[in-house]
Amino acid sequence: MSLQGTRLEVDLGALEHNYRFLKSKLKPGVKFMAVVKANAYGHGAIPIAQKLQGLNVDYFAVAYMDEAVELRDNNITKPILVLHAQFFNLETCIERYVEPVIYSVEMLDAFIAIAKTKQQQSYPIHLEFNTGLNRIGIDIDDLEEVISKVSSNPSIKVRGLQSHLAASEDLNEKEFTESQIQAFEKINNKLQEVIPYPFLKHKTNTSGILNYSDAHFSMVRSGIGLYGYGNDSRFDNDLKPIASLKSTVSQTRWIETGESLSYNRSFIAQKRTQYAVIALGHGDGINRIYGYGKASVLINDKEAPTLGIICMDMFMVDVTDIDCKAGDEVIIFNKNLSAGHMAEKAGTISYEILAGIQKRVPRYYLS
């Protein structure tokens, strides 16, 4: 198959490799939750989930309810966890049989009321406690109240206990991370004293899997690692970026010394300069932060830095020293020139550029 034009090529073989590598870090019996929120970090939630379901992944996680519904509508039958459920769509959890994360006492009350109305018995929920990230989560001071409510309401059942690590990729914060793990263990011990059945415990993300093997508990959650990034150069040879973002040269032009290009005359030529126009822009997810030379692309195996402001549908790069023409392929990132490298130059992270690739960019899935 010959592919042309702007597209994101996704290597499902590399996805399988990453999944198996991360699984190899777990003790036998530890379950694996694949995080496919934000359109599987920009890679396409449905094909990614279908591939992972075929590999017998244990769980999926999404951020919001509409993402869970999309998976269910496309024959994803594995358990789905909604990490950031909202009060207004808690009923949909039951209608589509997905599991909500309950992150406040008020939300617990609301879900119990809905479960009773719908005559549920032992509907699975996951309790999220705040152990230091200070985002969403039940306060530890509310633990006794939560225990009372879940143990006295047969309409619900604790399927999982979870929390989030704040800095698992930063080993300078190891002491803080270990304090989070210890707090989580204390909460777990309290729950286990009064809940007469087993439940899942999950706290580690990709960096937690790789850096804190003693905190895998009974399930781990991985997002960015599945897509080829371990947040640490130590794992660059073990994980394979699964996506290549490619486009084409639309036109090449010359400007003379003192002439400008792009909006607001954002580049002024200091010498006679040849530039190429690339068929991609911030409307596709290549944000304005990558302008002004803060990113480079590959054209005919040579790096071409951006010039001036990124436009909505195109941007310009310096090809003064590159032999190229209209129609030539442009590599924005791939397994060799990774999205992590591109993001680092602009002062951001791989997650942002990957998840930001818009749906108007066609995805092609390669085995």
Which SSEs are present, and which pair or pack?
Blueprint: E1 7-11, H1 12-24, E2 31-35, H2 37-41, H3 45-54, E3 59-62, H4 65-73, E4 80-82, H5 90-96, E5 99-102, H6 105-117, E6 123-128, H7 143-151, E7 156-162, H8 174-194, E8 200-202, H9 206-211, E9 219-222, E10 243-255, E11 260-261, E12 267-268, E13 273-278, E14 296-299, E15 302-307, E16 315-318, E17 329-333, H10 339-345, H11 350-355, E18 363-366
Parallel strand pairs: 1-18, 2-3, 2-9, 3-4, 4-5, 5-6, 6-7, 7-8
Antiparallel strand pairs: 1-10, 10-13, 10-17, 11-12, 13-16, 14-15, 14-17, 15-16
Characterise this structure.
With 367 residues, the protein is of the alpha/beta class. It has two domains: 12-235, Alanine racemase (TIM Barrel, Alpha-Beta Barrel), CATH 3.20.20.10; 243-366, Beta Barrel (Lyase, Ornithine Decarboxylase, Chain A, domain 1). It is built from eleven helices and 18 strands. It has helices at 12-24, 37-41, 45-54, 65-73, 90-96, 105-117, 143-151, 174-194, 206-211, 339-345, 350-355, and strands at residues 7-11, 31-35, 59-62, 80-82, 99-102, 123-128, 156-162, 200-202, 219-222, 243-255, 260-261, 267-268, 273-278, 296-299, 302-307, 315-318, 329-333, 363-366. The strands form three sheets. It has an eight-stranded parallel sheet with strand order 8-7-6-5-4-3-2-9. The chain has a six-stranded antiparallel β-barrel with strand order 10-13-16-15-14-17. It is elongated and about 75 Å long. The model has no long low-confidence stretch (mean pLDDT 96).
